[in-house]
Design a protein that fits this description.
alpha/beta; 2 domains; D-Maltodextrin-Binding Protein, domain 2; 11 helices; about 280 residues; single chain; 5-stranded mixed β-sheet
Length: about 280
């Protein structure tokens, strides 16, 4: 009888442990404890900025968990599916295009920062030294490709059709005096291909990851007062219907502070520019 009692006690204990383990991260939290909030972001600077405010979010009663992605597609799909409560990696034109082509319902809530695109030197070290037929790599997605073409135009390398603006494509190039070979590559791959081209237009986050510095390694960059800065700020994004989520509103309050602005300015030295 005693032996049976011991066995029964052990089984009950084991079952209790299994049930607790099965609850995992989705277990209801104790009343008065922090609430769970999952946000997706790309590594630099988005994840770094979010890590800077994690402790402050905890003070607001929110356990902010950051999932880091290395592409621009999965964070939106995960947000749409409810796997993420928000994401932070994209500008509004990219989000609008993604919504249209993927039948998703993303909403941009709060602009945090702008990452200037820059034209980085490689085999050729200055604009004046660019030879006839020099190879310039630019991002192949519509929004960043248009930004890159506008940057090349601002640098005096090409001329774009009047009114092309943020929708510019290579078809809008009306003058290319140096017969530049403008090659469209996946944005994330351009830093890896830098040795094979004369110059390349690289997104701020990918330049950061590659250890490139605007002041040291580039020959031209988007101005902070340009139309690109106004158009391509990176936003906190949620699925439609979640705009009033108290956790999202708390995130916006924590981000929109002098402490975050000073962190961005001191850490990134102009490679990332706060816009709030």
């Amino acid at each position: 009888m005693k032996k049976r009692l011991v066995i029964a006690t052990v089984l009950i204990f084991a079952l209790s442990i299994a049930l607790l383990a099965g609850c995992g991260d989705n277990a209801p939290q104790d009343e008065g404890g922090p609430v769970r909030f999952v946000i997706g972001a790309t590594p630099v600077p988005h994840t770094e900025i979010l890590e800077f405010i994690q402790e402050k979010m905890l003070e607001e009663g929110i356990d902010m968990q950051i999932r880091t992605f290395t592409d621009f597609i999965q964070p939106n799909l995960a947000t749409q599916a409810g796997e993420l409560d928000a994401n932070y990696f994209q500008h509004r034109p990219y989000m609008d295009n993604f919504n249209e082509t993927n039948n998703t319902e993303m909403v941009a809530l709060f602009p945090v920062h702008f990452e200037p695109l820059a034209l980085y030197r490689s085999r050729t070290h200055s604009l004046e030294e660019l030879s006839d037929g020099a190879i310039i790599a630019i991002p192949n997605d519509p929004t960043n490709g248009a930004r890159a073409l506008n940057l090349l135009a601002a640098a005096g390398l090409i001329t774009l059709r009047d009114g092309a603006g943020v929708l510019a494509t290579r078809m809008d190039v009306t003058d290319n005096p140096k017969n530049l070979d403008i090659r469209e590559l996946e944005a994330a791959q351009i830093p890896h291909n830098l040795p094979d081209v004369d110059m390349a237009v690289i997104n701020g986050n990918f330049a950061l990851q590659a250890g490139l510095e605007i002041g040291r390694d580039s020959v031209a960059q988007e101005d902070k007062d340009s139309i690109s800065a106004q158009t391509y700020a990176n936003y906190i994004v949620v699925r439609a219907g979640n705009e009033a989520d108290e956790r999202v509103q708390a995130l916006i309050r924590v981000l929109a502070t002098d402490a975050v602005r000073e962190f961005i300015e001191s850490r990134y030295q102009g490679r990332v520019v706060p816009v709030f």
